[in-house]
Amino acid sequence: MAHSVLDGDVFRSLILSASSYLGARKKEVDSLNVFPVPDGDTGTNMYLTLSSAAETLSKRHGLQLGEAAELVSHGALMGARGNSGVILSQILRGIATCFAGRDSVPASEICRAFDQAVATAYKAVMKPVEGTILTVLRGLRDGASKAASSRDLAVILESGLKEARAVLERTPDMLPVLKQAGVVDAGGKGLVFIVEGFLEALTSEGALRIDVGPAEQGAGKARKEGLRLEELETADIRYPYDTQLLVALRGPTANLLREELTSLGDSLLVVGSSELVRVHIHTDRPGEVLNVCLRHGALSNVTIDNMIEQSQAMARSVSDAGALPEVQEAARAVGDVRGPYLPAPPILAEGRQLKEVGIVSVATGEGLKDIMKSLGSDLVIDGGTTMNPSTAELAAAVKTVAAKKIIFLPNNGNIFLAAKQAKKLTGRNMYIIPSKTIPQGIAALLSLNLNEEMRHNLKRASKALKKVKTGEVTYAARSGKFGRHVMNQGDILGLVEGKVEFVGKDPTTALKEIISRMVKKDDEVVTVYWGMDISEETADKARKELEDMLGGAVEIEFHNGGQPLYYYIVSVE
Fold first, then answer.
1. Do 254 and 270 touch, CB atoms closer than 8 A?
2. What is the reported pLDDT for 300?
3. What is the CATH number of domain 241-334?
4. Range 355-467 has CATH code 3.40.50.510
5. What is residue 421's three-state secondary structure?
6. Mean pLDDT (whole number) for 316-329
7. Which of 415, 416, 364, 421 is nearest to 392 (CA)?
């Protein structure tokens, strides 16, 4: 049956079908991990994100298209896990933006929705890399546009899918790391599966149901993505102020507002309804952005972040005493910028005081979590290498800490994007220190002095991240070649700063090999965290062998981290 109209019920079927379809194939996407360590999870993260979106519609019928798309967008954002999940949530955000306020649309409008999805997803990534899911998304849009004259939604999607598949097959030519590993881009493959799921909804009969069992919902199987192509810079130095706010429009002026803001920065996003829009822009003139928005309506939920780490605290709030003069002036014009959209502060038990600064960290392994708590973390979220917490989980955790300001340590590059999304949901002064490894997170904790100003702490933490070197000992999840190294599945790998430096058969031998490469004459301390698969006896033996090897040149510390998958995690400072 041809579908000439896309309404809420058809859109619901597309999403539910895609969720089930991707769920059955997520392991195939996971297997496309470029890096040979046991942490490929792109398919799992995309599935958990999409299933969160699908659950918002699973029991809803008769919705308008705009309502259904907005529910999906919100569900995806709340459930987004890992960089791939966050990017998928932005794709769905773009689609929802296109369909906002519409009861239904002609089938050809899906082309415009894909175009908005491309724009929104590219803006989510500060330095987009071609050969990834973004490129495949663009192929989907271009292919669908070729069939825009058709009145059949399935014909348009088939045309888009054909081009998306062709682009996916070309991704190894765009990224040498894919060609070397002999795989296509995992995120792009996941997107192709989603579109195939859309088409299955249009060609199959019967009611489509989301099938998300407890085992699938559990985050314990979600692991860090191996294709480290979406590790994002924290700022574009030309436009350092990440400015976001809500504008209650005095008229249908969203397009005019967008035009007036275009020249003030980049990554501009003005989305919402004819009555309320969210503005996001990277700018070097935040005060001027607020003044422009004021001409169009009342402002609320104003957030201005300086994305350069060394001065990250300069403009965290438009009312901070140390903010730039132009921001202070705009703040006086705005008045109370909290507005009705921010969550209430944490509820305190009677007699309990609200701390000035709280710390939230992410780690897996009881030993590592205990260490971080001993170093001042108020809360350690279970996650990281073997589990990527969702945006909603991060936001909920942060809101439980009774503090005016929160320092957040992701300790994993694949949690950073979800943390940025969580920050928008919390309504709290949340300062993200971009720690990508456990040693970086511990070094940052050791550098903090919460009795001093936030800007000093952020600067010290930034320096601490750069001073520490990270090593890891794990095993090869598959056979293959990475760089100059050839490995078989199950081989022991020694990594330094994420790069394979040793391939062998024994974890302790790998430990000694990478430490011999990491330690330089100016280094003072080597800290080793042994994992759940290493006994205390083995760890003691490894320590003695390291002491003999290094001959007292550096101090050596061993701690039981209890982490899975990684036999040893090493910090050298």
1. yes
2. 79
3. 3.30.70
4. yes
5. helix
6. 37
7. 421
